[in-house]
C-alpha cells in the first residue's frame, strides 16, 4: 500500500499523484485519460480504454466433447467478449460441440470459422443486462420445475418428467449469465456502474442464484427417478411428500422475498421466519421416514431420494434466507 497527500491547485482543485509503478504497468503516461468510479467511501481509478472487448485465446487441439464444452463455458463465465478457439486442424466433431456450447449460452454467436480457428463473440451489451431479472427468472423456473417434478411423480407422467429435465438447460443458461455478470463486477468497477448495483448486491444475487440452480438440479433428479417407476406409489406417502413440498416452497419464496425487500426490519423478520421454518420441516421428514419403513426396500430407497431432494431444496431456501439476513445487517 502506498499513501499520497492531497494537494490543492488553483485554489479549488484537489490533486493526487499516481504511483509510477502502477502507471507503467497499465501504460498510463502524460496525456493519458483515466476513469474514476465512486464506490461507497472509496474512489476507484482505472485506465480508460477504447477497446471493444477482451479477447481470450484457447488451444483446443486435445479437447473433445465435455472438456471442450466446459472450456467454452469457462471462457464465457470468465468474462471474455471474444473467444478464439484454435487448433492445428479443428475437426467436424469439435465444430459441432462448439456450436452446441455456443447455443446453450446467452448472447454468444460464432463470428468466424477457418480450418484451424473458430471465433465466437458475446453480442450482449452488459449495461442492458439485469442480474436482478435473471435471478427472478431463475426463481420462477426452479420452483416450477420442483412442482412439476413432483406432479410427474404422483401421476407417473413421463412426458412432464422429461420436460422438467429439459428446463434445467434454461436454468443453467441463466446461472451462467449471472456468474458472468458477477465476475465482471469483480474485475472492473465499470461493470458495476453500468449495472447500477453495488458489488455487494451483485454478490448477494450470485450467491442466491447458486442456491436456485441447485434446486433445479434436485427437481431434475426427481424427474429422472420418476422415469424409473412403473407402478403407482402409495397415496399416503405421496400426500406427505406434497405437504413437504408446500413447506419447502414457502421457505424458498419467503427467503427470496426477504432478499429483495428494501425495508431492513421486514427483510430480517422474513428471513428469520424462513430459517425457522426449515427446522420445522425436519419433523415432517421424520414422519415420512416412518411411512417408508412399511414399503419394500427398493421403493423405500427411491422415495427416500425424492424426500431428500425436497428437503435439500428447503435447505437451499434457508441459505438464501441467510444471505438476506447478511444483506439486511448494518454495513460496517
From TrEMBL:
The organism's taxonomic lineage, starting at the top: Archaea, Methanobacteriati, Methanobacteriota, Stenosarchaea group, Halobacteria
Domain (SpoVT-AbrB) ranges: 8-53
Protein's GO biological process: intracellular phosphate ion homeostasis; negative regulation of phosphate metabolic process
Molecular-function annotations in GO: DNA binding
Entry-linked InterPro entries: PhoU, PhoU-like_sf, PhoU_dom, SpoVT-AbrB_dom, SpoVT-AbrB_sf
Protein name, entry field: Phosphate uptake regulator
Xref: Gene3D superfamilies: Phosphate transport system protein phou homolog 2, domain 2 (1.20.58.220)
Amino acid at each position: 500500500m502506498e499513501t499520497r497527500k492531497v494537494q490543492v491547485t488553483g485554489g479549488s482543485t484537489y490533486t493526487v499523484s499516481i504511483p509510477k509503478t502502477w502507471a507503467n504497468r497499465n501504460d498510463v503516461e502524460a496525456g493519458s485519460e483515466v476513469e474514476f468510479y465512486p464506490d461507497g467511501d472509496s474512489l476507484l481509478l482505472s485506465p480508460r480504454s477504447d477497446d471493444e472487448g477482451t479477447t481470450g485465446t484457447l488451444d483446443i487441439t486435445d479437447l473433445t466433447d465435455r472438456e471442450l464444452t466446459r472450456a467454452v463455458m469457462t471462457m464465457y463465465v470468465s468474462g471474455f467478449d471474444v473467444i478464439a478457439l484454435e487448433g492445428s486442424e479443428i475437426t467436424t466433431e469439435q465444430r459441432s460441440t462448439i456450436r452446441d456450447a455456443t447455443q446453450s449460452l446467452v448472447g454468444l454467436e460464432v463470428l468466424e470459422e477457418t480450418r484451424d480457428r473458430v471465433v465466437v463473440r458475446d453480442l450482449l451489451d452488459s449495461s442492458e443486462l439485469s442480474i436482478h431479472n435473471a435471478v427472478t427468472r431463475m426463481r420462477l423456473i426452479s420452483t416450477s420445475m420442483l412442482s412439476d417434478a413432483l406432479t410427474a411423480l404422483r401421476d407417473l407422467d413421463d412426458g412432464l418428467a422429461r420436460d422438467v429435465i429439459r428446463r434445467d438447460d434454461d436454468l443453467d443458461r441463466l446461472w451462467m449469465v449471472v456468474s458472468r455478470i458477477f465476475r465482471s463486477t469483480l474485475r472492473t468497477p465499470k461493470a458495476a456502474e453500468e449495472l447500477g448495483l453495488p458489488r455487494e448486491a451483485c454478490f448477494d444475487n450470485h450467491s442466491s442464484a447458486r442456491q436456485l440452480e441447485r434446486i433445479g438440479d434436485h427437481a431434475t433428479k426427481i424427474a429422472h427417478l420418476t422415469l424409473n417407476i412403473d407402478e403407482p406409489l402409495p397415496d399416503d406417502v405421496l400426500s406427505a411428500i406434497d405437504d413437504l413440498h408446500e413447506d419447502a416452497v414457502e421457505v424458498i419464496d419467503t427467503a427470496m422475498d426477504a432478499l429483495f425487500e428494501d425495508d431492513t426490519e421486514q427483510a430480517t423478520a422474513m428471513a428469520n421466519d424462513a430459517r425457522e421454518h426449515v427446522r420445522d420441516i425436519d419433523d415432517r421428514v421424520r414422519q415420512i421416514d416412518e411411512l417408508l419403513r412399511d414399503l419394500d426396500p427398493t421403493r423405500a430407497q427411491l422415495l427416500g431420494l425424492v424426500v431428500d431432494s425436497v428437503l435439500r431444496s428447503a435447505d437451499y431456501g434457508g441459505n438464501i434466507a441467510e444471505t438476506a439476513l447478511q444483506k439486511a445487517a448494518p454495513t460496517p
